[in-house]
Write a structure and sequence with these properties.
By secondary structure, the chain is an alpha/beta fold. The chain is built from twelve helices and twelve strands.
Length: 438
C-alpha cells in the first residue's frame, strides 16, 4: 500500500451529490455544521486532483420539480409517509460553492442512485482511457455504495476516500460500510494516502481533528418503519422470486457434498419460499455465476479484499474463479432444483442485472416486485438490490433467506441499508403479503 501510485492520465475524481440541498441550510448558502469536515476534505482532494491534472466529474441528482422522474420502488423507509411526491427546488440541486465546477469539468445528470444508470458517465470515462475512479461525496450507503457496486461490475478500479464520505443518518453508518464492506468492491484510502498517490514524494499534510459524533446526525433517522405504516400487499401477478447464487460451492461441504450445518436454517427458508412460489404460480429465476475456467471473464477491478489475490495491473493477471461454468461448485443446490419453465440467468458480475437478460425477462413477464433470496449479503445480494431499485423494481429482501458469514454485516444491511432499497421481510411475512393480495 505504501508504494501505491496513481496515473493521473487514467484517473478521474468523481464527486457524488455534493449539492446545496444536502450540505447547506434552508437558505442554500450556509454550510451545515455536520458537513463542514467532509467539505473541507473534498476541497483538499479537488485541489490535489486538479494540480495532478486529474479530470473532475460531478454526478448530480437532477429531478423534475413535480417529482415524476423520482424512483417509484417501494421501500420500508418510505412506508407511512403522506403527502404528494415532489422533486427538489431546482436551485438546491446545484453543486456547493466550495466545489464549484470549472470549465472542462464533467457534470453528469443522474436520476437514480447509481451514477452509471442511464447516464453518459461510463462513455465519458472510457473515452479518456480512465480505469480508476476516486469517489467522494455521499450519502455513503446510498449513492456511493450503489455507484461503487456498479463500478466494480464495470471493471473500474474504485478508491473510496474515507474522509470525503458522509451519511446523513450518522457517521457510524458511513464508517461501517467503509470499514467492513467496501473492501470487497473497492479500495479504501485516506485523503493523505490519495494525495501521496497523486503526488509521490510530497510531504503529507497535517490531518484535521475528527470531531465526528458516533450517533446519528441531525436530520437523519435509522428507525425502522413504524408499526402503523401501511404495507402494500404483493400482487402475485406482478411478482417473481429470484435466487442469487444458491450454489453447491457456497452451501455444501466439499468432502461430504451435503449441506453445511450452518446453512440449514437459511436453506429451509429458501425452500419454504420456493414451495410457496410454485404453489401460487410465481415465475422463479435463478441468477447463477457462469465463469470461464481460466478466469478470463472475472472482474478485474482492484479491491482491498484479502481472501483472494487480486490483479497487480488493471486488466492483467485475473484470478482463478475457484468454480466455473458446468463445475460441481457452480450447480444449483439440490434443495432448490430448477424446474421446466424456470429462468436461468447466467451472470459474470455481482449484479444479476449486469450484462444479462434479467431485466428484459422480468419486464416481459409483467413483473414489478422481485423477492430476493440467496447470498452473499454484502456482495451479489446488495449489488442486485441496488440495481433493482434503480430500475424501479420493488425489491423485497427475504431476511431469513439471505445469508452471509458475518453477523454484523448481516445486521447492518438488514437494518440500515436494505430498508432504503426496498422492503425487508421474512419468508412468512412475504407469503402473507402475497396471499393478502389474492
Amino acid at each position: 500500500m505504501a508504494d501505491e501510485t496513481l496515473d493521473p492520465r487514467r484517473t478521474a475524481l468523481v464527486f457524488f451529490d455534493m449539492l446545496k440541498r444536502y450540505d447547506y441550510g434552508p437558505d442554500l448558502k450556509t454550510l451545515l455544521p455536520q458537513a463542514r469536515e467532509q467539505v473541507e476534505a473534498c476541497a483538499r482532494l479537488m485541489t490535489g486532483a486538479r494540480e495532478a491534472g486529474v479530470p473532475v466529474f460531478y454526478a448530480c441528482g437532477d429531478h423534475r420539480p413535480d417529482g415524476r422522474d423520482l424512483a417509484t420502488a417501494i421501500a420500508d423507509n418510505d412506508l407511512g409517509r403522506t403527502g404528494d411526491r415532489h422533486g427538489p427546488d431546482p436551485a438546491s440541486q446545484a453543486v456547493i460553492d466550495e466545489l464549484k465546477p470549472q470549465p472542462g469539468d464533467y457534470v453528469i445528470r443522474k436520476h437514480r442512485w447509481s451514477m452509471f444508470v442511464q447516464t453518459e458517465l461510463e462513455l465519458s470515462l472510457r473515452a479518456r482511457d480512465i480505469d480508476t475512479i476516486l469517489l467522494a461525496g455521499g450519502s455513503t450507503e446510498v449513492g456511493i455504495a450503489s455507484s461503487a457496486y456498479s463500478a466494480r461490475d464495470l471493471d473500474f478500479n474504485t478508491i473510496l476516500v474515507k474522509e470525503c464520505l458522509r451519511s446523513g443518518r450518522g457517521q457510524h453508518i458511513s464508517d461501517f460500510f467503509v470499514d467492513r464492506v467496501a473492501g470487497g468492491i473497492a479500495r479504501v484510502r485516506s485523503l493523505d494516502q490519495v494525495i501521496q498517490m497523486l503526488h509521490p514524494g510530497a510531504a503529507p499534510a497535517i490531518a484535521t481533528a475528527s470531531g465526528r459524533q458516533a450517533g446519528p446526525e441531525a436530520g437523519g433517522s435509522t428507525q425502522d418503519r413504524g408499526a402503523a405504516a401501511a404495507d402494500p400487499p404483493i400482487d402475485p401477478r406482478q411478482t417473481a422470486l429470484l435466487f442469487f447464487d444458491t450454489l453447491k460451492g457456497g452451501n455444501y461441504d466439499r468432502e461430504t457434498r451435503s449441506l453445511r450445518p450452518e446453512n440449514r436454517a437459511f436453506m429451509e427458508s429458501c425452500v419454504r419460499m420456493l414451495e410457496a412460489a410454485r404453489r401460487i404460480g410465481l415465475p422463479v429465476f435463478y441468477a447463477q455465476a457462469a465463469h470461464r475456467e481460466d478466469g478470463a471473464d472475472w472482474a478485474s477491478a482492484l479491491t482491498d479484499r484479502i481472501a483472494r489475490p487480486r490483479a497487480e495491473t488493471f486488466g492483467r493477471s485475473r484470478i482463478h474463479p475457484g468454480s466455473h461454468h458446468a463445475s460441481w461448485e457452480a450447480e444449483i443446490v439440490d434443495e432448490l432444483t430448477p424446474q421446466p419453465g424456470d429462468y436461468r440467468v447466467h451472470k459474470h458480475r455481482y449484479s444479476a442485472f449486469h450484462g444479462t437478460h434479467l431485466e428484459l425477462s422480468l419486464r416481459t413477464a409483467g413483473v414489478s416486485n422481485v423477492l430476493l433470496a440467496g447470498g452473499a449479503t454484502q456482495a451479489g445480494i446488495a449489488s442486485t438490490a441496488y440495481a433493482g431499485r434503480d430500475r424501479d423494481f420493488n425489491m423485497v429482501l427475504l431476511r431469513d433467506a439471505i445469508r452471509t458469514g458475518d453477523a454484523d454485516i448481516q445486521d447492518y444491511f438488514m437494518t440500515h441499508v436494505f430498508p432504503r432499497l426496498g422492503r425487508v421481510r421474512t419468508v412468512e411475512e412475504t407469503i402473507a403479503l402475497i396471499q393478502g393480495a389474492r
